[in-house]
Structures are given as C-alpha cells and as structure tokens.
Amino acid sequence: MIMRVNPSNIHFDPNLTPGHDELFARHLTAAVKGTMPVYFAAVPSSLCIPFDRDYRPDLHSIGAAAIKEAFERAREGNHQKLLTYQRGYWFIVSDDYIPYFAALIGMPDYLPCFIFGKPDHPLIQDVQGPIDAESFKKYIGIA
C-alpha cells in the first residue's frame, strides 16, 4: 500500500532517531565511491552491537511495529543484511537498528553482515569479498 504524505506533515521524532555515527557515514561514503572495501560474512550475533546503545526503537509503537514486521520477514527467510564495521572485537551496527532488534527476538547464532573494511576476527564465517562498489550500491538501492 502506498500512502501519499504532505511533506509539511513529516516531523522529527527524537525517540525514533539514533545518534549520528560519523565514522559509519565516512565508511559508507567511501564504500559507495569504491575507496573502501566491503566484505560479506556471517558474524556471530553476540558480536554485533549498536552504535547508539541508548536508542530503543522497540519502546516506541512505530518502532515496535517495524521490528515485528522485520522479524516476520526474517522468519520467512528474507534476512536483511546489516551494514557494519569492525571496532576491535565488535561489529558496530549504526544504521540497521530495526533488523538488528528483529534479530534479537530470534537470536540466531549468526547475522548476515556487510562489513566496511577487511574484517579480522577468528569467529566470523564465510567471508566473501571485497564486493565491487557497483554491486554494493545496487544492494543499498542507489544504483
């Protein structure tokens, strides 16, 4: 269903907006330009952590509904790949909070992740890449 919304009716809701991750933004820009390699891997869900640990979309009715829908899609086999980057031992989720929170419901052993930069972690599996910039742009919907 497509809904037409008057732009003047769109408002910023701080409860539905996570903090800005400048490093993620730089990585994403570089990946789109083709200057940052992007890999794909199965990352243990216990190693994926949110950038904004205080952001809780599950506590807002709109966020909770979106999480439920993402969980149902994943249960049907349509798993969204998370955009992440490695920081030490962890993989930071800065943009994909809804599918990340949906994954927390089912708590799978591994999450499908695009990783900015070459990952270096003994627990990730099935590392593929680097992925060419054009394929990555198609995945994120800008090509």
Strand-helix topology:
Layout lengths: L21 H12 L4 E7 L3 E3 L10 H15 L6 E6 L2 E4 L3 H10 L3 E7 L8 E7 L1 H7 L4
Parallel strand pairs: 2-4, 3-5
Antiparallel strand pairs: 1-5, 1-6, 3-4
Helix pairs in contact: 2-3
Describe the structure.
This protein has 143 residues and is an alpha/beta fold. It has one domain (37-139): Conserved hypothetical protein from pyrococcus furiosus pfu- 392566-001, ParB domain, CATH 3.90.1530.10. Helices cover 31% and strands 24% of the residues. It contains 4 helices and 6 strands; from the N terminus they run αββαββαββα. The protein has helices at 22-33, 61-75, 97-106, 133-139, and strands at 38-44, 48-50, 82-87, 90-93, 110-116, 125-131. A 6-stranded mixed sheet has the order 2-4-3-5-1-6. β3 (82-87) and β4 (90-93) form a beta hairpin. α2 (61-75) packs across α3 (97-106).
How many structural domains can be distinguished in the coordinates? 1
What is the overall silhouette? globular
Strand order of the largest sheet: 2-4-3-5-1-6
Q: Ends: how far apart?
A: 24 Å
CATH class: Alpha Beta
Radius of gyration: 16 Å
Indicate the CATH topology: Conserved hypothetical protein from pyrococcus furiosus pfu- 392566-001, ParB domain
- Give the ordered list of helices and strands: HEEHEEHEEH
Strand content: 15-25%
Poorly predicted sequence stretches spanning 5 or more consecutive residues: none
Mean pLDDT: 90
Number of strands: 6
Structural class, judged by helices and strands? Answer: alpha/beta
What is the CATH architecture term?
Alpha-Beta Complex
Number of DSSP helices?
A: 4
Find the CATH superfamily: Conserved hypothetical protein from pyrococcus furiosus pfu- 392566-001, ParB domain
For the sheet with most strands, the description reads: 6 strands, mixed
State the helicity in percent bands.
Answer: 25-40%
